[in-house]
């Protein structure tokens, strides 16, 4: 009788049996992100890779009675390749975080090499996987991954994502603090990129566009754009957002998995290789996309913008252009 109950509870349809690999799984984001994905019923294989401690994190999580098996890998024994083989979704939070006074771009010199190396391993071991990049500066690390995948002949624009979900979560939370609503029911569209002026929350498209006074709306936009700084300052040298980022990453990965599983109307904002402003030389842009069985199913436009938002987009594009070029040039210079 026990085995029958077990068989029923643990049986999984093909649409709910995915391998998710987390690279940088023992870090500040990696650990809670791994926990949240251990709780995701669509995950049957959770593979955790880090330079240190991944086996310990995996052993710890493996005692949680959900259906996934958890494997931990380090550099030894070809651990990176084994972590990635047959992965459906790869999340990359590997890299150094900011300290007070730093911009995300200040992380480029260290994180660009880390992300490039991990992208090469993805290209070699799981060329069809959806790759979700968390490591900063996202505006540049996503172009790095694209260039690596292109060089290896396996780039699929439908399956490369910069994770900007934390900007959406912040926008939803911060606007609810102003209007007194349930933050879980808010859904602010945040477009552009993931740093300062490139983060463009479209407040005019919310139901509160006429009710939030301009001064408060301006302060809200500033707060969303610099939400990361708030956490970096509060952590006072010990890193940047980890727990809220883990929630954001788990939500985004959950949506990618829902899309792969064929669920309908799965919508997330994400930074992707996008046609929206390609004619102006901006090759990547964050906007809402519908996710499907092949990854990105539909890229949505920005919708109707206020004059102020048009200006913000123009400003964002100038910074994005430089950030994207920096990532592409890095791969060219280090081929
Ligand atoms: P952390 O230092 O706590 O953890 C990073 C982990 O990466 C460490 O465990 C480290 O051992 C590992 N690592 C380093 N090089 C590696 C490699 N080559 N292979 C595998 N693992 C490697 O940092 P954190 O707080 O978890 O932040 C990680 C990154 O995420 C930072 O770049 C940070 O800026 C970024 N971040 C992005 C967002 C976002 O919204 N996209 C939000 C928060 C943080
Ligand atoms: C964030 O937005 O919290 C992250 O990008 C981390 C950071 O450096 O602010």
Automatic annotation (TrEMBL):
An annotated GO BP: tricarboxylic acid cycle
Species, as recorded: Eeniella nana
Single GO cellular component term: mitochondrion
Lineage: Eukaryota, Fungi, Dikarya, Ascomycota, Saccharomycotina
Catalytic residues (positions): 194
Binding site for substrate: 98, 104, 136, 170
Domain Lactate/malate dehydrogenase N-terminal, chain residue ranges per copy: 19-162
Keyword field: NAD, Oxidoreductase, Tricarboxylic acid cycle
Domain Lactate/malate dehydrogenase C-terminal per the UniProt entry, residue ranges: 164-330
InterPro entries listed in its UniProt record: L-lactate/malate_DH, Lactate/malate_DH_C, Lactate/malate_DH_N, Lactate_DH/Glyco_Ohase_4_C, Malate_DH_AS, Malate_DH_type1, NAD(P)-bd_dom_sf
Short name of any one Pfam family annotated for the protein: Ldh_1_N
Family named by the database record: Belongs to the LDH/MDH superfamily. MDH type 1 family.
Swiss-Prot/TrEMBL catalytic activity: (S)-malate + NAD(+) = oxaloacetate + NADH + H(+)
The enzyme's E.C. designation: 1.1.1.37
Protein name per its UniProtKB record: Malate dehydrogenase
Binding site for NAD(+): 24-30, 50, 111, 134-136, 245
Gene for this chain: MDH1
GO function terms (MF aspect): L-malate dehydrogenase (NAD+) activity
Record text on subunit structure and interactions: Homodimer.
CDD domains registered for this protein in UniProt: MDH_glyoxysomal_mitochondrial
């Amino acid at each position: 009788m026990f085995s029958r109950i077990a068989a029923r509870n643990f049986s999984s349809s093909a649409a709910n049996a995915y391998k998710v690999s987390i690279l940088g799984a023992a870090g500040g984001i990696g650990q809670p992100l791994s926990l949240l994905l251990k709780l995701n019923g669509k995950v049957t294989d959770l593979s955790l890779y880090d330079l240190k401690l991944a086996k310990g994190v995996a052993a710890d999580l493996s005692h949680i009675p959900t259906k996934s098996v958890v494997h931990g890998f380090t550099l030894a024994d070809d651990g990176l390749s084994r972590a990635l083989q047959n992965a459906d979704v790869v999340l990359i939070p590997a890299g150094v975080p900011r300290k007070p006074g730093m911009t995300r771009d200040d992380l480029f010199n260290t994180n660009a090499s880390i992300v490039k190396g991990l992208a090469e391993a993805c290209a070699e071991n799981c060329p069809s996987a959806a790759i979700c990049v968390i490591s900063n500066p996202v505006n540049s690390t996503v172009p790095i991954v694209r260039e690596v995948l292109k060089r290896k002949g396996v780039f699929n624009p439908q399956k490369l994502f910069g994770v900007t979900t934390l900007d959406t979560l912040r926008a939803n939370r911060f606007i609810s603090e102003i209007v007194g609503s349930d933050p879980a029911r808010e859904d602010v569209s945040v477009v552009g990129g993931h740093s300062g002026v490139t983060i463009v929350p479209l407040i005019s498209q919310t139901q509160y566009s006429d009710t939030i006074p301009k001064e408060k709306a301006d302060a809200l936009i500033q707060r969303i754009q610099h939400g990361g700084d708030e956490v970096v300052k509060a952590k006072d040298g010990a890193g940047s957002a980890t727990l809220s980022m883990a929630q954001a990453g788990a939500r985004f990965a959950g949506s990618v998995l829902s899309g792969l599983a064929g669920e309908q109307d799965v919508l997330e904002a994400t930074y992707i290789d996008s046609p929206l402003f390609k004619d102006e030389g901006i090759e990547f842009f964050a906007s809402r996309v519908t996710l499907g069985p092949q990854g990105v199913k539909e890229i949505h436009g920005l919708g109707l913008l206020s004059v102020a938002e048009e200006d913000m987009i123009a400003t964002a594009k100038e910074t994005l252009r430089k950030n994207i070029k920096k990532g592409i040039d890095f791969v060219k210079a280090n081929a």
